[in-house]
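C-alpha cells for Trifunctional enzyme subunit beta, mitochondrial. Go.
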Amino acid sequence: MASMLLRPAAAASSWASRLGARPLSVTAPLQAQVQTKSKKTLARPGVKNIVLVEGVRTPFLLSGTTYADMMPHDLARAALQGLLNRTGIPRDAVDYIIYGTVIQEVKTSNVAREASLGAGFSDKIPAHTVTMACISSNQAMTSAVGLIAAGQCDAVVAGGVEFMSDVPIRHSRKMRKTMLSLNKAKTLGQRLSLIGSIRLAHLSPELPAVAEFSTAETMGHSADRLAAAFGVSRLEQDEFALRSHSLAKKAQDGGLLEDVISFKVPGRDIVSKDNGIRPSSMEQMGKLKPAFVKPHGTVTAANSSFLTDGASAVLIMSEEKALAMGFKPKAYLRDFVYVSQDPKDQLLLGPTYATPKVLERSGLSLSDIDVFEFHEAFAGQIMANLKAMDSDWFAQTYMGRKSKVGAPPMEKFNSWGGSLSLGHPFGATGCRLVTTVAHRLKREGGQYGLVAACAAGGQGHAMVVEAYPQ
C-alpha cells in the first residue's frame, strides 16, 4: 500500500478499478426518517449499565473570532458550568472529572483541574487531562466508562477543549538552551558570555503545525493522497462538503443543535451559535485552489474542517445512580474500540478499521444501526473511508477480513452536519458526536447509533450508543 499511496496518480486508477470506481451519492434527503425498530437491548447480565445523562458544548467558533482573547480553561469552564446549569447536579456529587485536549496551554497543563475549580466544582474532586489527538474527548468518555464499570465512581464528567486562537509558540531550541543556562549563570562574566553567543538565527520561533511527528507530513497532505488513492474526485468532495453545511444550517435553523449553550464572552457579546456554518454553491467551491498538494490536489479550504475554538462536556453515570438522583438518561454507552494503523499511509482510516470491530463486539450488523455520526476531518477522508468500508477487496487485502462491513446509508449519516460545517475543536469533537447520536436517536425513533472517528498517529475510535427507553 505504501508504494501505491506515494504515487497518487497511478494509485487512483489502480484502486479505483479494484474498488469499483463508482461515485458514492451524497445527495440523500436532508432529514433522515428512521423507522422505529424492535431490537433486543445490549444490556448484559452482571454488567453495569452506564448512561449518558446530558451533554453540552459551547458554540464552536472559527479561531481568531469572538473567543480570540480567552484561554482554553475559560472555554472548558463555560462548558462545565453549562452542564451544571442544565442538569442541576450538586457540585460535590461528581466523583471525577476528565478532559481531553491536544495543543496544551503551558500555564494550565492539567486543564481539567483548572476548569473544574473555575466552574465551582468541589476541590475534593480529582481531575486529569488526556490527549489522543482528534479522539481526545472520546478517550475522556471511555476513561469515565472504565472508572464506573470498575466500581471506582458512579458519576463522572468528561469533556474536551481546544483553543487554536492562541497556541504556544516556542523559542528555537538553541535560544531555549541559552536562556536556561542564563538562569543558572552565577557571575556577570558568565551571563555576558552567554548573551554574546546569541545569534540572529536563534531568535527564529518554532511554530506549531498540524503535522505528524513521525512522518513530518501535514494531515491535509495525507488526506489528499488518500483521496487520490481511493479515486475520490474533487467533485465528490465538494458535494459532500456542501451537504455537510446545508444539513448543519437546516439543523441550526430548526433548533436541533440543542447541545449548544449560550455563553457570555467577557467584554463581548453573548454567543449562542456555531459560526462556521456557511452553505456555498458548487460553482463557488469549484473556484478554490488546492490547499496542500499544488497544483493538482483536490483538498481545498472548502472541503476541509477549519481551525476551531470550543469546548464540550458530558455527564456519565451508572444507570442506578442516575435514576436514584432523579435523572432521565439520554442513552446507554455500550461497546467501544480503539484501533491503530500505519500513520504514513493509513493515517485517516480509523473508522474503516474500528466500525466492524465494534459491531462484532456488540453482536450487531451495519443494518442494525439507525444513526451514524462520523468525524469529518476532510471530505476526501470521509469518502475514502466509505469506499474502503464498501470494498471486499480492501477488507480482504488490508484488514484480514472475509468480506466488507459495508458503507453507511447516507440518509442515516451525519444528517445534522458534521465537523466540516459545525467545526472541529480537536479535543472536543468526540463529546459532540456522542451527544448528537443520543439526540438523533430520540428524535428519529432509532435504537442504535454508531460514532466513529480518525485521529493523528493513524489511530481511530468507534462506539455503539443505545437509545434510552422513552
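The chain has 16 helices and twelve strands.
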